[in-house]
Design brief:
Layout: H1 23-28, H2 32-39, E1 40-41, H3 47-53, E2 57-58, H4 68-78, H5 82-95, H6 104-120, H7 124-135, H8 144-159, H9 165-174, H10 178-190, H11 197-209, E3 211-212, E4 222-223, H12 228-242, H13 245-255, H14 260-272, H15 276-288, H16 292-304, H17 308-320
Antiparallel strand pairs: 1-2, 3-4
Helix pairs in contact: 4-5, 5-6, 6-7, 7-8, 8-9, 11-12, 12-13, 13-14, 14-15, 15-16, 16-17
């Protein structure tokens, strides 16, 4: 699938079906609606889908060999026609194939330059693009500059008395930036002992992975540098204060390569408290290190607890004589 630099379709031009009108005449008349009607068409019957997948028909040639129609659009853009500045940005982003990874930064910069010019010139589609970059529900928090741009354009819409602009500005101001979200997260981390167990578990996981998502609607959360030391501290607290077996199992996995005996103790502790995966791991380990009877006991317990791979280990023992999960370091 063609990688988009920007996706303008959802709030941008609503293209009617292709007609046989003269594309160049429509552009020369500086009529954006007619230009879009005569110069772009669907090849599948669904233009939005075609634009997403890069299969729309158009009369603009290619990035390296732009057609006469493309040059006419660019000329109007260079003459500070905000509508055609937006249209040229749209063409660069949605109709032209990228030249490859090496050129994408430059291509993105060119597209953004024209969209910024269009937005600053008052083009509503370009303004909407920058506001929606910040308000996009798939992203938990935006970069500070993205929010600043959204505020500027939302305030412009308020000044022009566009209906609903004041509520839009409130939404823009209310949504946090990455810095806001990260600062709030670390503030809560420092107070973790006062928080419910489930919140501590989420924070410990976020610290381990370097990624948090407090807004459940968002597909993309906030990323930061992982902090395994702080994460370990939270997991240890969960074990000591809440007897949390999942935390014990995760701690065991963290310590496996650096403090094996501690990891083994934690794995057994979690297994004894009915953590299925811990019981399965312990069963594999014990069987592989010669304690076959005890290992089988733990594997059967893991199976009863619903750990799906316990059955695989038991089957491998019956067929091969041992689980395929045995590690050489266990035998040393």
């Amino acid at each position: 699938m063609k990688k988009k630099l920007l996706l303008l379709v959802c709030f941008a031009l609503h293209f009617p079906a292709y007609s046989d009108g003269n594309c160049n005449d429509a552009i020369k008349s500086a009529n954006l609606e007619q230009a879009s009607e005569h110069c772009i068409w669907s090849t599948s019957g669904d233009l939005n889908k075609d634009l997403i997948f890069g299969t729309a028909g158009h009369k603009f040639g290619s990035r390296l060999l732009p057609s006469r129609s493309a040059l006419l659009v660019k000329k109007l853009a260079m003459e500070n026609n905000a509508d055609f500045q937006y249209f040229w940005g749209f063409i660069l982003s949605n109709l032209y194939q990228s030249q490859g990874k090496k050129y994408r930064v430059t291509e993105r910069a060119q597209t953004n330059m024209w969209l910024t010019k269009a937005a600053n010139g008052g083009n509503f589609n370009a303004i909407s693009y920058y506001i929606n970059m910040h308000l996009n529900e798939a992203i938990e928090a935006s970069a500070p500059q993205v929010k600043e741009d959204a505020i500027v354009y939302a305030r412009y819409l308020v000044e022009t008395k566009m209906p609903g602009a004041e509520n839009l500005l409130k939404k823009v101001l209310a949504k946090p930036t990455v810095e806001n979200t990260t600062a709030d997260f670390y503030k809560r981390v420092e107070q973790y002992e006062t928080l419910p167990k489930e919140q501590i578990k989420k924070m410990a996981k976020a610290l381990r992975n370097g990624h948090t998502k407090s807004n459940q609607k968002a597909m993309i959360g906030t990323r930061f540098k992982p902090d395994i030391i702080k994460s370990t501290e939270l997991y240890e607290y969960l074990v000591v204060k809440h007897n949390d077996t999942e935390a014990g199992f995760i701690l065991a996995k963290i310590f496996l390569k650096t403090q094996f005996e501690k990891a083994l103790t934690l794995m057994r502790w979690s297994a004894e408290r009915d953590h299925g995966e811990a019981a399965g791991w312990l069963g594999d380990y014990l069987f592989c290190t010669g304690k076959k009877d005890e290992g089988m006991v733990w594997l059967k317990k893991a199976q009863k607890l619903g750990y799906e791979y316990a059955e695989d280990s038991i089957g491998e023992i019956e067929d091969l004589g041992s689980p395929t999960t045995c590690e050489e370091s266990w035998r040393q």
